[in-house]
Amino acid sequence: MIRRIVLASNNQGKLAELQAMFAPLGIELVRQGELGVPEAEEPHRTFVENALAKARNAAQHTGLPAIADDAGLCVDAFGGLPGVDTAYYATQFGYPKGDDNNVTALLEQMRDVENRRAALVSTLVAVRTPQDPEPLIAVGRAPGEITQERRGSNGFGFDPVMFIPSFGKTFAELPPEVKNANSHRGQAARQMVELIRQRWL
């Protein structure tokens, strides 16, 4: 019976968000840093390959089942980029790494772009062992449009410029509970909870 799963991330926010969703399964999520797991290489060009690499790395080092996510912003006008390079987006344009600089760089790059369509994508991958031939894969996608300027003060990342047409607001203008219920990560986490319930428990 699975009681503990390693989260292949050291992000406190991610841990708290996912822990709350996994609680009903009676599963405890443990951050990999607490178990001395080194960061995995992420050389791949797709979210699913990077998430799988991170999950396998955590399972390999701990002997426990592991779950990892890889997420980013996919902009239509840029052929789906920045994608897996989202966290480092600003550094391509001479800015230091960081959420706020990423938003600044994106607004500058899109200044004269008419097609504002984009999606925030989160891919969660879970493995029972490093060699698990059947990883569980859940993908959440929040499509929207990039605004011309920042709006709202909630959230993080690209939330202030990610306009969600069904709400008529950016993610940063929504209450956190509404955002989390509809965000790419929220969607992926709900799918993953169901997959674990069906396949592993």
UniProtKB/TrEMBL annotation:
Sites binding Mg(2+) sit at E41, D70
One GO biological process term: purine nucleoside triphosphate catabolic process
The record's listing under InterPro entries reads:
dITP/XTP_pyrophosphatase (IPR020922), ITPase-like_fam (IPR029001), RdgB/HAM1 (IPR002637)
Reaction equations catalysed? ITP + H2O = IMP + diphosphate + H(+); dITP + H2O = dIMP + diphosphate + H(+); XTP + H2O = XMP + diphosphate + H(+)
The entry's cellular-component GO terms read: cytosol
Q: How is the cofactor bound?
A: Binds 1 Mg(2+) ion per subunit.
Q: Which UniProt keywords apply?
A: Hydrolase, Magnesium, Metal-binding, Nucleotide metabolism, Nucleotide-binding
Q: What is its EC number?
A: 3.6.1.66
A GO MF annotation of the entry reads: dITP diphosphatase activity
Which major enzyme category is it? Answer: hydrolase
Q: Which cofactor does it need?
A: Mg(2+)
The catalytic site is made up of D70
Q: What does this protein do?
A: Pyrophosphatase that catalyzes the hydrolysis of nucleoside triphosphates to their monophosphate derivatives, with a high preference for the non-canonical purine nucleotides XTP (xanthosine triphosphate), dITP (deoxyinosine triphosphate) and ITP. Seems to function as a house-cleaning enzyme that removes non-canonical purine nucleotides from the nucleotide pool, thus preventing their incorporation into DNA/RNA and avoiding chromosomal lesions.
Q: How does it assemble?
A: Homodimer.
- Which protein family is named in the record? Belongs to the HAM1 NTPase family.
Annotated NCBIfam families:
RdgB/HAM1 family non-canonical purine NTP pyrophosphatase
| Name under which the protein is recorded | dITP/XTP pyrophosphatase
Its source organism is Ramlibacter cellulosilyticus
